[in-house]
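tool_call predict_complex ligand=flavin-adenine dinucleotide
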Amino acid sequence: MHEEKVADKNTPYWWEAAPVRPLPSQPLAKRLDVAIVGAGYAGLSAGLVLAREGRSVAAFDAMNPGEGASSRNGGITSGSIRPDYATITRRFGEAKAIAIEAEGKIAREFLYDFIETEGIDCDFQLVGRFMGALGYDQYEKMARGAEALAKRLGIESYAVPHAEQCNYIGTDFYRGGTVRMDIGGLHPAKLHAELLRVALASGLTVHSRTPVISIEKDVSGFRVATSAGTVQARQVLVCTNGYTDGGAPFLRRRLVPVRSRIIVTEELPPELMARLMPKLMMMGENRELGFYYRPSPNGRRILLGGRDSSRGNSDPTAPTLRLRNGLIEIFPELEKVRLSYSWFGNVAMNRDMLPRIFEKDDIVYATGFCGSGVVWAPWVGTRAAYKLMGRAQDAGTAFDFRPPASIPFYSGDPWFLPAIIKGYALQDKIAWWRARR
Ligand SMILES: Cc1cc2nc3c(=O)[nH]c(=O)nc-3n(C[C@H](O)[C@H](O)[C@H](O)COP(=O)(O)OP(=O)(O)OC[C@H]3O[C@@H](n4cnc5c(N)ncnc54)[C@H](O)[C@@H]3O)c2cc1C
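tool_result ok
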């Protein structure tokens, strides 16, 4: 019997309005000041600064520019850092924890300012984000966190008690939540396309479908071997994040690519949207395998994302159904909804779950965004460009420190992920049971 597809299309919704495509082929320069590996948000942001400062610079991408995470993501300008304040303080000291928290605010503002001053057309809306609490204990803890955020950084953030939740979200799934108004939503593929437009206009050369195969040091810099030939570059910046391959073996042993999948509903009636997402905010929750979700920029569909433990080119049915069940658990009214899109992309995790700029054997790396690169990748990419130019005063960032630790028995194939995801699922079940006792 012919089975109905779970989602109509298995390509990103975002590609309808901003398709990723190859660029016209460019001759390969013999010499460059800087060769950049990867043309996502990070690589392009760095290339833009370097080109504007008069450097000869080219970015190489193994796929079409943007075809990595930068045109596949949820478009939520979270700028989140996974470890909480207390954990960072314990591991790296309080000064680092304060600096990282403050940098999140600066990096978000940097992105919003870039969008405005460069006239970036990416449907950006600073609508705020609601985070749902699973139980009343979690709510109390989150409410204290919102208060601290407002006090420490002056960010408009506040708690929403269970009784008032319906003004933010049409569900009884949560026991209240918190709102912060410095987070919004944008169209990620449009952001990438616009960044590409501005970077090309500033003099950055971008070679699409041109993987970097190896990077070798020599007397005058580096020999960068690509599928289109070899380039001599004075400096090299690696921005390959969740798509890091054998071209950057040092990084590959330190980053774990983790799949994140997004589903998109069919267009919903306006009165239903108004009930489920009355303020059209970005949404999230605090579970290990929690979901992030949001309205489409035109406010007619719901997008929901979460972990995908599938591997290779396996059938998308099971991970799509897992997300669909999650959507219905939050919004039972959507039980009969049709899904129009389902796709995945790779985020990059490292052992301490912090984004990074670091240098190893004179190669600079800007990477490790742990699923929050809409804010972090443009910011960290820009800081990396200043670092390459030796402008320490502009490069200043709390993320420029030692390389992430390598992962034992790992060289790029994350064989251990399905087991870890199962473990998280169990933790979530226990946490849920405790929260609702
Ligand atoms: C489904 C999903 C949802 C997400 N949702 C959000 C969200 O809502 N908010 C948020 O802040 N973040 C989100 N993220 C994360 C965010 O998209 C990424 O952190 C960000 O796009 C990373 O940008 P980047 O430039 O570092 O890497 P990418 O955009 O992934 O680009 C890396 C590029 O490197 C190239 N490359 C790799 N190896 C080579 C080589 N040897 N030679 C040449 N090129 C190479 C790849 O082809 C790729 O294009 C999400 C990610 C996914 C996948």
